[in-house]
């Protein structure tokens, strides 16, 4: 580990698995170790009064265990939501059909027409388009995009109509780390909510512990872990979660991005091994980042002491999970980036050319032309997204040494590595195609 000795840990860091382990375990209908799937879209009431009380918000999942209709609360989705709340240390949570639904639902709930958002300029492409294109056109909600690491710029962008400061805990794809305690301080001094997208760093960073008000997730990524479900979550206090489900003004209730209970059941089975997966993603990414750096390549990873936010993330993160599974490698040009990915996939089977992240195998994409292509060239440049930037979500299949031989072999063939290998033969992992 590269943790410098003089880093002062943030006083609030607590490993979220302890909270998770203390969360009530939901058994199946017949005593099964796993919870049952509640597949019904509507629920019977024992007495007509109960339905009326549900509509008046006097009964609900936590008030008499009452359920109304599947787009409102569902018991299976609610159980997964309780696990997410434990994971993020929030009072409550609710799951959505996608990460974008969680983000859009949260922002629609917090902002009215004419309101304003201050957001990091390096965010997921879909979030960028939502803030920059969709919300102003459809709802009159505007956003000022700022360098979120420039706290003076963040504060200067706040207007009397600002309601939200928005950032990703670890930004896509620049891997800059948000100073969550400092952003929370700015937000709260101005009466704003701090919303953090923690998709890149579940367990590693706990935004709520660090002062954020609302934590959103794309569970499509690390939490799902198998690239087989699109899913999201909003973690917040109970009042906000109930507000999202309000029959008159609730964004989740009225826009309807409901999570299917079957999906909730499947994702709930992966929560128990999320800590093991996050630790191994991080261990592999750290090893590759250190070795790529040793070869003199332009690698970016928060676990490297040279990363501009290394000291901060070392103070803020839960050390049991390292620094995350994502690294970027700048090959200079899109052509070289494409050649490397082509070779790594088709000659070495090191990983796959695909967008998304958090899969058990390595996924690679060229951010500028794919997941950040919604951004204007100017915004990409300002955010430091170069055309040859390859984002890798480092998987944990195979062995670290085997995967390193593959990666090094491809880099060598492209002329990026000249020196003799330090150990073992190079290029022997090339597969016949
Ligand atoms: C993928 C992603 C999203 C969107 O999530 P979906 O589940 O695809 O809707 C949002 N934020 C980040 C950081 C992401 O990586």
């Amino acid at each position: 580990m590269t943790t410098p000795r003089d880093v002062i840990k943030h006083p609030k860091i607590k490993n979220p698995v302890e909270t998770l382990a203390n969360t009530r375990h939901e058994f199946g209908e017949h005593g099964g170790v796993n919870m049952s799937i509640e597949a019904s879209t509507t629920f019977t009431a024992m007495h007509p009064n109960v339905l009326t009380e549900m509509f008046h918000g006097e009964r609900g999942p936590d008030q008499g265990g009452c359920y109304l209709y599947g787009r409102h609360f569902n018991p299976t989705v609610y159980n997964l939501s309780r696990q997410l709340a434990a994971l993020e240390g929030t009072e409550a949570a609710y799951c959505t059909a996608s990460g974008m639904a969680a983000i859009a639902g949260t922002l629609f709930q917090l902002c009215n027409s004419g309101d304003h958002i201050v957001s990091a300029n390096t965010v997921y492409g879909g979030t960028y388009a939502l803030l920059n294109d969709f919300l102003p056109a459809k709802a009159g909600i505007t956003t000022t995009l700022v360098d979120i690491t420039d706290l003076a710029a963040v504060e200067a962008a706040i207007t009397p109509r600002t309601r939200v400061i928005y950032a990703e805990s670890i930004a896509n794809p620049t891997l800059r780390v948000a100073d969550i305690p400092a952003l929370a301080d700015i937000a709260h001094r101005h009466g704003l909510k701090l919303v953090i997208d923690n998709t890149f760093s579940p367990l590693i960073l706990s935004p709520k512990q660090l002062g954020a008000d609302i934590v959103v997730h794309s569970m499509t990524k690390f939490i799902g872990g198998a690239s087989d479900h699109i899913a999201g979550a909003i973690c917040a206090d109970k009042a906000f979660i109930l507000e999202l489900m309000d029959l008159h003004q609730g964004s989740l209730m009225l826009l309807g991005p409901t999570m299917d209970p079957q999906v909730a059941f499947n994702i709930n089975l992966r929560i128990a091994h999320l800590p093991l997966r996050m630790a191994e993603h991080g261990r592999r990414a750290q090893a590759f980042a250190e070795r790529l750096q040793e070869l003199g390549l332009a690698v970016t990873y928060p676990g490297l002491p040279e990363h501009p936010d290394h000291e901060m993330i070392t103070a803020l993160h839960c050390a049991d999970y390292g620094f995350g599974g994502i690294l970027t490698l700048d090959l200079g040009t899109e052509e070289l980036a494409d050649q490397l990915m082509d070779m790594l996939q088709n000659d070495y089977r090191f990983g796959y050319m695909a967008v998304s992240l958090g899969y058990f195998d390595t996924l690679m994409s060229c951010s500028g032309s794919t997941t950040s292509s919604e951004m204007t060239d100017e915004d990409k440049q300002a955010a430091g997204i170069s055309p040859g930037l390859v984002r890798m979500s480092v998987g944990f299949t195979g062995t670290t040494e085997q995967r390193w031989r593959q990666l090094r072999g491809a880099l060598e063939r492209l002329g990026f590595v000249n020196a003799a290998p330090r150990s073992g033969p190079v290029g022997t992992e090339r597969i016949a195609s």
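Residues 98-100, 124, 126-127, 168, 172, 197, 199-200, 218, 220-221, 230, 232 surround pyridoxal-5'-phosphate (CB under 6 Å). Confidence is low (pLDDT under 50) at residues 421-428.
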